[in-house]
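Quick one:
INPUT:
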């Protein structure tokens, strides 16, 4: 083991994700068909050409008023992808699987043996003291409340989430949750689902600890109304010259779906340990607490000073990990949860040359 003063962060340091979801696929049917695995038809994506208006903000400075008026008066012609339930189906079925893997804290790549040993020992100390109970409870909560449905959850009349623990291809245990009875902003109000949530959380914790193989099958039923539009993931088209559609939706084998990355983002939306969480609620676990929809990072590496002129504590992942591993400065328990949750998330965290 290297001396404390000689220990430094490895330049090559990577972790594999420990929550591994599949893509979530969309099917359509009726609410009273929830107990039947057959009879559900795939939700397809189709194109729609629309004649809209120019409504975006225009640059008006030094513009010829006549040309500006002409531009606004022209129609906005565009082709977009859409997905919707059939006219005789009122319920969206969203299904995916989730693997829970062990080995949290053990790097998949690390070019410094001393740092690796210290890191593994530190994470082992955390798990011996705290276990994965708190993190697993929050992951279970995000399965039960249907957070992974994103926009499809909004305005739904009823949402029911079925979670099954698969062993040998068959369900060993299963739980059913009324998603709308569970909050998206808090992990404390568990309503009548307490026992089921505890059982699911215990199973996930066992998977993270490597005590057992955990494969979950998640199926959500969302009662939206016959013919209503549904919302798969939207593809990011980097080459603007490719195609002529304004919006391209994601499909797997002709079936509309949500990206596995977006499902994973929802499941790890458990970070309430940052400054400002009381106002905003949980955010996804990210090294800098980045929320791209707001254009803000809530865990800045240089957070500035408070109203009294004192430096604010650095709560980004890299500073917390460095202080914990290199300086033996143990973070507060909440920030320990955040660091371990980031390791569960996975990523490349080596120190840049």
């Amino acid at each position: 083991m290297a001396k404390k003063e000689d220990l430094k962060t490895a330049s090559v340091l990577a972790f594999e994700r420990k929550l591994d979801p599949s893509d979530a696929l969309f099917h359509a049917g009726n609410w009273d068909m929830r107990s039947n695995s057959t009879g559900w038809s795939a939700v397809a994506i189709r194109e729609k050409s629309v004649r809209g208006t120019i409504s975006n903000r225009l640059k008006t400075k030094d513009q010829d008023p006549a040309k500006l008026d002409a531009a606004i008066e022209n129609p906005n012609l565009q082709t977009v992808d859409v997905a919707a339930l059939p006219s005789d189906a009122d319920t969206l079925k969203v299904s995916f699987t989730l693997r829970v893997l062990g080995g949290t804290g053990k790097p998949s790549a690390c070019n410094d043996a001393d740092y690796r040993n210290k890191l593994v020992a530190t994470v082992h100390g955390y798990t011996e003291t705290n276990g994965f109970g708190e993190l697993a409870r929050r992951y279970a909560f995000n399965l039960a409340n249907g957070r992974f449905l994103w926009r499809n959850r909004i305005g739904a009349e009823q949402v029911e989430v079925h979670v099954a623990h698969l062993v040998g291809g068959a369900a060993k245990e299963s739980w059913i949750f009324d998603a709308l009875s569970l909050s998206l902003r808090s992990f404390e109000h568990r309503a009548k689902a307490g026992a089921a949530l505890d059982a699911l959380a215990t199973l996930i914790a066992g998977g993270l600890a490597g005590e057992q193989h955990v494969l979950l099958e998640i199926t959500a039923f969302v009662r939206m109304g016959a013919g209503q539009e549904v919302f798969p993931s939207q593809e990011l088209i980097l080459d603007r010259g490719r195609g002529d559609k304004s919006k391209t939706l994601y499909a797997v084998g002709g079936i509309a779906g949500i990206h596995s990355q977006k499902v994973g983002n929802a499941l790890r939306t458990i970070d309430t340990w940052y400054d400002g969480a009381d106002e905003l609620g949980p955010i996804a676990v990210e090294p800098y607490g980045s929320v791209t929809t707001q254009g803000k990072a809530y865990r800045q590496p240089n957070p500035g000073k408070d109203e009294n002129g004192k430096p604010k504590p650095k709560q980004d992942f890299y500073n917390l990990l460095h202080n914990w591993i290199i300086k033996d400065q143990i973070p507060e328990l909440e920030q320990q949860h955040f660091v371990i949750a980031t390791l569960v998330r996975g990523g490349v965290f080596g120190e840049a040359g």
